[in-house]
Amino acid sequence: MAKLIRDLMTPNPVTLSVASTLVDAAIAMRDFNVGAVIVVDNGQIYGIVTDRDIVVRAIANGNYPATTRLEEVCSRELTTVSPSDTVPEAVRLMRDKAIRRLPVVEDGQPVGIISIGDLASEQEPHSPLAGISDALPNR
Q1: Angle between helices 87-97 and 116-123 (to 10 degrees)
Q2: Model pTM?
Q3: Which one of 62, 101, 118, 134 is least enclosed by Cβ atoms within 10 Å?
Q4: What residues contact residue 119 under an 8 Å CB cut-off, 6+ apart?
Q5: pLDDT digit string (tens) for 48-98?
Q6: Separation between Cα atoms, residue 126 and residue 52, nearest integer Å
Q7: Where residue 133 falls among pLDDT bands split at 50, 70, 90?
Q8: H or E stretch including 79?
């Protein structure tokens, strides 16, 4: 029987409101050692913003980090999974859509996140990606 997303996801993902700024997201990413923050509007999932989004979509376009709101730069067309979806389904979605992270959503609310590194650690524990994903963060 295939493992479920709830078995591998990181629960309680880092979330920020649509009104939060790029600086808020960068601080959260640093403090929680993550590369993505789920953006919410009144508790419901609105989008996702990654460290790359901050650099490429915002700063490189001249946006001021202290005043640019996450709703202006986050990805809105989200691919999500539920905790009861299977790991092979997440792998297929990531491959088909060329994405590295999937928010885990239940009743419109983010309950977790699963990354390509999580899947590599589970499915190919001796692969280079799994080794990188399992390594301690360098700060």
Answers
A1: 130
A2: 0.84
A3: 62
A4: 8, 87, 90, 91, 94
A5: 999 999 999 999 999 999 999 999 999 999 999 999 999 999 999 999 999
A6: 27
A7: very low
A8: none
- Domains of the chain plus CATH, in order, are 5-134 (3.10.580.10)
The one-letter code for the residue type at 58 is: A
The SS3 assignment for 65 reads coil
Whether 29 contacts 37, CB under 8 Å? yes
Half-sphere exposure in the Cβ direction for 131 (13 Å, CA)? 3
Q: What is the pLDDT of residue 1?
A: 75
N-terminal to C-terminal alpha carbon distance within the chain: 39
Contact 46, 40 (CB under 8 A): yes
Residue 81: beta bridge partners?
A: 104
Model confidence pLDDT, tens digit, residues 97-114 = 999 999 999 998 999 999
- Give the model confidence (pLDDT) of 26-37 as tens digits: 999 999 999 999
CA dihedral 105, 106, 109, 111 (to 10 degrees): -60
As a whole number of angstroms, the distance between CA 46 and CA 18 comes to 8
Give the DSSP letter of residue 54: I
